[in-house]
């Protein structure tokens, strides 16, 4: 996959950071309450290094095989999150490569992550992915299923639930994402009540709607296209779904 190499990372990053500050200002939040996760999938290590030289620390990948090849070639100080659909047979690699898995979508997957984390002598922070719109093309918990399995996931010895994640239906109108972000925020409150413990993170918002997400409480925004530029051979919907 090729990308537009004429994009200016410094200019793009400056624009994104300004938009984050503005969105935080509108919602009476501190800008440092929002983590920018640079979605680097399909970009080479050289591009990741260029982004890291601008001060970015958090990067997201969605394919284990690509991450295995790429991460060792990137600066060692970077912090990696897995944001794609994770198959059980890839859990060992995911536990080894990433410091957070944002896409836990079943109890069976959580059990496998806990098992592999035990073998690696580590505890894995996770986010539970929620498919709020019930889209057949996307993975993620139904809200009622998440609440039904929440306590059992929380009891797994090597899992730490840090919050929730969602990918809303793609739309040319960012405002249409707001209702889904509001629902995720409310679901997090329900989960916190069930667990009698705070969940610090809401990972929601991508290049097209991250400002709306911040206004609704996002603590992690996953941004690829707005930072690195659009895919040269991807249509608008495909590019948005991959962000």
DSSP summary, beta strand count: 8
How is the quaternary structure best described? single chain
Main sheet, how many strands, which sense, barrel?
A: 8 strands, parallel
CATH homolog superfamily: Alanine racemase
**Envelope shape:** globular
Please report the first level of CATH classification, the CATH class: Alpha Beta
- Helical coverage, percent range: 40-55%
Count of DSSP-assigned helices: 10
CATH architecture: Alpha-Beta Barrel
Could you explain the architecture of this structure?
The chain has helices at 9-26, 45-53, 64-70, 91-97, 107-119, 143-154, 178-195, 210-215, 225-228, 236-241, and strands spanning 35-39, 58-61, 79-82, 100-104, 124-130, 159-166, 201-203, 220-223. The chain has one domain: TIM Barrel, CATH 3.20.20.10. Residues 1-6 and 234-240 have low confidence and may be disordered. Strands 7-6-5-4-3-2-1-8 form an 8-stranded parallel β-sheet. It contains 10 helices and 8 strands. It starts with 8 loop residues before the first helix and ends with a helix. Helices cover 41% and strands 16% of the residues. It is α/β, with parallel strands linked by helices.
Summarize the structure.
The protein has an eight-stranded parallel β-sheet.
Question: What are the key terms here?
Answer:
8-stranded parallel sheet; alpha/beta; 8 strands; TIM Barrel; 243 residues; single chain; 41% helix
